[in-house]
From TrEMBL:
<feature type="binding site">
    <location>
        <position position="51"/>
    </location>
    <ligand>
        <name>substrate</name>
    </ligand>
</feature>
<dbReference type="InterPro" id="IPR041492">
    <property type="entry name" value="HAD_2"/>
</dbReference>
<dbReference type="InterPro" id="IPR010972">
    <property type="entry name" value="Beta-PGM"/>
</dbReference>
<dbReference type="GO" id="GO:0008801">
    <property type="term" value="F:beta-phosphoglucomutase activity"/>
</dbReference>
<dbReference type="GO" id="GO:0050308">
    <property type="term" value="F:sugar-phosphatase activity"/>
</dbReference>
<feature type="active site" description="Proton donor/acceptor">
    <location>
        <position position="10"/>
    </location>
</feature>
<feature type="binding site">
    <location>
        <position position="10"/>
    </location>
    <ligand>
        <name>Mg(2+)</name>
    </ligand>
</feature>
<keyword id="KW-0479">Metal-binding</keyword>
<feature type="binding site">
    <location>
        <position position="144"/>
    </location>
    <ligand>
        <name>substrate</name>
    </ligand>
</feature>
<dbReference type="InterPro" id="IPR023214">
    <property type="entry name" value="HAD_sf"/>
</dbReference>
<feature type="binding site">
    <location>
        <begin position="43"/>
        <end position="48"/>
    </location>
    <ligand>
        <name>substrate</name>
    </ligand>
</feature>
<dbReference type="InterPro" id="IPR051806">
    <property type="entry name" value="HAD-like_SPP"/>
</dbReference>
<dbReference type="Pfam" id="PF13419">
    <property type="entry name" value="HAD_2"/>
</dbReference>
<feature type="site" description="Important for catalytic activity and assists the phosphoryl transfer reaction to Asp8 by balancing charge and orienting the reacting groups">
    <location>
        <position position="113"/>
    </location>
</feature>
<comment type="similarity">
    <text>Belongs to the HAD-like hydrolase superfamily. CbbY/CbbZ/Gph/YieH family.</text>
</comment>
<dbReference type="InterPro" id="IPR036412">
    <property type="entry name" value="HAD-like_sf"/>
</dbReference>
<protein>
    <submittedName>
        <fullName>Beta-phosphoglucomutase</fullName>
        <ecNumber>5.4.2.6</ecNumber>
    </submittedName>
</protein>
Length: 214
């Protein structure tokens, strides 16, 4: 019996995934290499510094720790230029209606995101007050695929992990949900989100029946 839904932010509530991609691509190009959308899949859900490590590996670049911090800061600066310009029109289709349906059915809703920019994004799209708990990259010590972010979410809502469903667009996030003992609904392509219990293309016209797993 499902009592709570935990939502990933980037790629599920709002399409910030495209802005992460643009900012990382710009950094890669500046460092002298190409960065494809396929490469970008590996960065989804992963923390900022781990994303940078993957990017540098793709470009075959070795830099010292201090430079790494500077590069990550640079990317984040570009990324923040995009997200501070966002508004409610960038909330993904179906999100608002689905959350309303959940609340009408007594299901609790929370955010579980690796992003340290979570509050900025939720403020931009005016959704801060929609969630009963918000666990973001500032509150965790281990990013997805570690289950910490979702376990803290369940704890904050006072709901057992096995009564939680996670909505995720990233393989790292689906893995985190499963490792936390939760159900995972992939939002995106079934080819990518193989470990999820179910996969939907987006939250448009999703009914409450999606929470039945029997
Ligand atoms: P930031 P999510 C994740 O958010 C993104 O998917 C991932 O691409 C990003 O690197 C990570 O947040 C950290 O973001 O640089 O803003 O702290 O999908 O878990 O909501
Ligand atoms: Mg995501």
């Amino acid at each position: 019996n499902i009592k709570a839904c935990l939502f990933d932010l980037d790629g599920v509530i709002v399409n910030t995934a495209k802005y992460h991609y643009l900012a990382w691509k710009r950094l890669a190009n500046e460092l002298g290499f190409e960065f494809s959308e396929e490469d970008n899949e590996r960065l989804k859900g992963v923390s900022r510094m781990e994303s940078l490590e993957i990017l540098l590996e793709i470009g075959n670049k070795e830099v010292d720790e201090n430079t790494k911090l500077k590069l990550a800061e640079k990317k984040n600066g570009w990324y923040r230029e995009y997200i501070t310009k966002m508004d409610e029109s960038e909330i993904l289709p179906g999100v608002k209606d689905f959350i309303k349906t959940l609340k009408e059915n007594g299901i609790k809703v929370a955010i579980g995101s690796s992003s340290k920019n979570t509050m900025t994004i939720l403020e931009s799209i005016n959704m801060v007050n929609e969630f009963e708990a918000i666990i973001d990259g500032n509150k965790i010590s281990k990013a997805k695929p570690d289950p910490e972010v979702f376990l803290l979410g369940a704890e904050a809502l006072d709901i057992k992990p096995e009564e939680c469903v996670v909505f995720e667009d990233a393989t790292a996030g689906v893995e985190a949900a499963k490792r936390g003992g939760m159900y995972a609904i992939g939002v995106g392509s079934p080819d990518i989100l193989k470990e999820a219990d179910k996969v939907i293309p987006n939250l448009e016209n999703v009914s409450i029946d999606i929470l039945n797993f029997e």
